[in-house]
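Renewal narrative, Specific Aim 1. Our central claim is that a sequence can be written position by position from structural information alone. The example that follows is taken directly from our test logs and has not been curated for this report. It begins with the structure tokens describing the chain, in the order in which they were read.
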């Protein structure tokens, strides 16, 4: 039975990237030793790191004056590194969900934080609009995709102050105008690699501007100067990330990923909106292309567990919604084929015929 992987993270990865990593774990680059045992200072792994940065820049059309670095600690460490490196006095945070809220909370340790959010508090059913950005702040922080509630910022916003984005769960899923940002970061386990590596795209001119000292390991300058090699990097996830980047390029690049993601999301949202049993939790243009959240219609709520069992018996895993919201969540990242979404649609229609 074919398994259809809808987990939100760690997520589905291209089979080619997995196979190449397995092969390298046995014999890395013809060295006769495992990727798990190779020195990160070897010329073979140095070539991996260089190619990963180069390919990242190519796929996102990153302009001159930016660096791509690979770090540990996940996006959660970046919640502290961003204000440590960029905040002198004040920052603006767009609060669109749990992870945006965690980033905001961490930033309050470093200075004044202006929160932009929907009212009432905790309503994450849409992206805030019609807000004013204080021009005296050091930067504005956004989280472009909300994995838990299923909203997404689909366009690069025009911001009068330096813009920072957590793109953990939608990086490389759509074209991005990188020059509108001074920093983009994300944990790789949502759309790029196994957990353990974090990517950071940082504008060189934005570093070294704060008027306080930064611990060595938390300073972006440390890692850009050393090419992500100041300390031992997460070797295996970086290698898998490179294989994923190669796969994206071979498949047609970020524009092709975006076309496929639109197609997959449209297919599933159309079925949710049509099906008598289900309803989407997010309406309108803020619906995420990466994490499609839905629930049972009120009169069918008692069927939730039965439906989850029904889909699991047919090879579909990871569809249970986040514990904060319940219901269902289909994560449709780059590597998830349209065939898996179609299979889910078919099962939803089958279940509707049985129960509606």
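The sequence written for that structure reads:
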């Amino acid at each position: 039975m074919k398994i259809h992987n809808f987990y939100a993270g760690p997520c589905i990865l291209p089979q080619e990237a997995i196979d190449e990593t397995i092969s390298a774990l046995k014999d890395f680059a013809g060295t006769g030793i495992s990727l798990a045992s190779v020195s990160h200072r070897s010329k073979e792994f140095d070539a991996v790191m260089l190619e990963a940065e180069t390919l990242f820049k190519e796929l996102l059309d990153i302009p001159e004056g930016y660096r791509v670095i690979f770090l540990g600690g996940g996006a959660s460490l970046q919640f502290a590194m961003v204000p440590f490196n960029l905040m002198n006095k004040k920052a603006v945070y767009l609060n669109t969900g749990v992870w945006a809220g965690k980033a905001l909370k961490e930033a309050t340790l470093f200075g004044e934080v202006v929160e932009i959010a929907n009212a009432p508090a905790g309503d994450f059913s849409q992206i805030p609009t019609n807000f004013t950005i204080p021009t005296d702040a050091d930067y504005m922080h956004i989280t472009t995709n909300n994995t838990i509630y299923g909203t997404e910022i689909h366009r690069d916003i025009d911001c009068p102050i330096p813009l920072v984005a957590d793109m953990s769960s939608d990086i490389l899923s759509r074209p991005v105008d990188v020059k509108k940002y001074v920093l983009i970061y994300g944990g790789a386990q949502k759309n790029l690699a196994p957990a353990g590596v974090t990517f950071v795209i940082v504008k060189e001119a934005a570093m070294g501007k704060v008027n306080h000292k930064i611990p060595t390991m938390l300073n972006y300058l440390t890692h850009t100067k050393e090419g992500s090699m100041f300390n031992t990097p997460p070797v295996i996830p970086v290698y898998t990330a490179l294989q994923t980047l190669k796969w994206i390029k071979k498949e047609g690049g970020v524009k092709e990923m975006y076309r496929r993601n639109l197609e997959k999301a449209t297919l599933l949202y159309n079925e949710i909106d049509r099906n008598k049993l289900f309803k989407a939790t997010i309406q309108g243009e803020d619906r995420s292309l990466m994490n499609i959240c839905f629930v049972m219609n009120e009169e069918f709520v008692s069927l939730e567990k039965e439906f989850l069992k029904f889909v699991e018996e047919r090879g579909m895993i990871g569809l249970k919604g986040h514990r904060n919201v319940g219901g269902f969540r289909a994560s449709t990242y780059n590597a998830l084929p349209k065939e898996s979404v179609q299979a889910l649609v078919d099962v939803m229609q089958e279940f509707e015929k049985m129960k509606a």
